[in-house]
Amino acid sequence: MKAQDIMSKSPACVTPDTTLVEAARLMKDENVGVVPVVESEGSKRLVGVLTDRDIAIRAVAEGRDGQTTSVGHVMTTDVRTSKPTDSVNDVMELMGREQVRRVPVVDERGTLVGIVAQADIVLEAKDDKRAEKTVEKISQPSSRHAQ
Predict the structure, then answer these.
(1) Which among 51, 50, 120 has a CA at the least distance from the CA of 92?
(2) Which of 1, 2, 37, 141 is most buried, judging by how many CB atoms fall within 10 Å of its CB?
(3) What is the pLDDT of residue 17?
């Protein structure tokens, strides 16, 4: 099974110029904790992701105004991605290694085509033990994420 078989296609996304309030409303409406950030309205080239944690830690905790602060000021830019043809096992390995619950899927040009979430892995996993191990790795405390 490949990433393209389980990914959510054409996920809602924002641009670096989107305000944090707009992005947070989109997260609420879509019931998601992360939105991909694309270069511009006319481009789906992935430039980062915005997580609810980015908003809480890099904006709210620092007293930034959500009406005037743009996504580009607080988004995560060092994003690990998968290709549509990557195996689900490779995606699980990446999630476990990087301790992330969602992985954007991009084509050879870096264009966003989908996103794989931890829930997609668990729902579609043929190897329940491997899926369980992936979830455990993602959930382990890491000095990388402790601030």
Answers:
(1) 120
(2) 37
(3) 98
| pLDDT band with cut points at 50, 70 and 90 for residue 86 | very high
Cα atoms found within 13 Å of the Cα of residue 135, Cβ hemisphere only: 14
* pLDDT at residue 144 is higher than 70: no
Banded model confidence at residue 128, pLDDT cuts 50, 70, 90:
low
Task: Answer left, alpha or beta for residue 37, where phi above 0 means left and psi between -120 and 50 means alpha.
Answer: beta
3-state DSSP of the chain: CEHHHHCEECCCCECCCCEHHHHHHHHHHHCCCEEEEEEECCEEEEEEEEEHHHHHHHHHCCCCCCCCCEHHHCCECCCCCECCCCEHHHHHHHHHHHCCCEEEEECCCCEEEEEEEHHHHHHHCCCHHHHHHHHHHHHCCCCCCCC
